[in-house]
Input
Amino acid sequence: MTDDIITEVWLKDTCLLGHGESTCAFLILDGSGFQCAKGTGIETTIRLRLAEGMMGAKGDNCDGWNERVRA
Output
């Protein structure tokens, strides 16, 4: 497991995985598990899609998993 993979506790308590519109819009999934898109190249695209109303998950629930790791 790397620091990029979000823990189950963080997914539940912060990302609100499975909570509809409250779920974090910046969650991305790859073969390793859930990761945070904040601070990556895709963040801008997600923010544009949110502004255009194209996202089902609309949460912006923290400063980003990667920021938590750096702290």
Summary: The CA atoms of residues 12 and 27 lie 12 Å apart.
